[in-house]
Predict the structure.
Amino acid sequence: MTATSLPADIADETNARILAISEDRIAGFLEDPFAKIAQLSGVEEQVVHARIRAMLSAGTIRRVRQTLMATNLAPGALVAWRIPEEKLDSAFEYFVRDDPFSGHVVIRSTDGATPGSSYRLWTTLKVPQGFSREKHCALVAKRVGADAFRIMPAKRLFALGVGHVRRKGMLPGSRSDEPGRVMDTNIVELSELEWRVLELLKRELTVDEIGAMPWLVRAEEAGVSYVEFLHVARALAERGVIGRFSTFLEHVKPDADGVRVTRYNALFHWRVPEGREIEAGKEVGRHHILTHAYWREGGAEFANVNIMAVAHGTDKQLVLDHKAAIDAHLAEAGIPVSYTNVFWGGRSEIKPSEIAPGAYVAWLRSGGVDPQAMRASSEEEPSAA
């Protein structure tokens, strides 16, 4: 049976077993991540290869790649953009097509006029080491016609993992017994060899590369032995800059069979007392429904919220029920919330953010910008992400 004739939908029982593991359960770097997916899913390794190839070919899986802890490799942030309505779609297209340093691109709305509701376009941003987030955003704002933007670096992370298939049917209030893990955002400096290996590690796998020893050709491309490539990759993992190996599904777009893995993308905001951000984040991070949770400062534009989290679902009321359960848990934990809000995602596109300094220099020069003028000043915090 060829890859194209195999079932490629998420509802297929074998595919669902594979995806429940492969979306966000393979942490760190592995020489053979597909063997680990087979082990944990209970699906034969050759079948894992064939099904992932089929789902990638059909577009059910949009990409297969080794993720990085980019917050530790490049200063980044969540950026909210205030853009005139008539320029919103063209700005969206710019971020998707012409800014490789912006990852998630989402047009958001609220259920009413609330603080920050005029900031409709949201992006994640990674600006390579040595360059300025503020200058990057000012440059891009002129290109897309934004009249204001708010840069919100993550001070701490409390939850990070997608797992949409695994989360289907999850009940509101489902949470771990232990507090969410606190992850820092300190920047790690790498050698030229480490950058070379890292850039090859993070590149998406093609259909033909899905199988045993997926890194063999990448080692040849790096100009090092397979043993040395694995050694560098493992050392990078020990330094905390390797994320997970993942098969990414389309979040909102329907697959070839018209099935959506998720429909509603909600960004939750809470304002908790200053000094209790980490405590609150650890409690929010317990909740299994969340794909991301972090401490970010929203500023006056967003009523000074400081804890944010993302949840996905196919039913809007159920997503709100999950948030209500988190709200109730915060109250039970004795953490006051003086303001909260939900920003709903509409049109969206998700792509990996480029983080290589050389790629940034080339991008600037292609647009007629002097890279030296985009360097970070001594006042900017190089460790914030």
User: Anything to note?
Assistant: The longest strand covers residues 339-349. Confidence is low (pLDDT under 50) at residues 381-385. The CA atoms of residues 66 and 245 lie 4 Å apart.
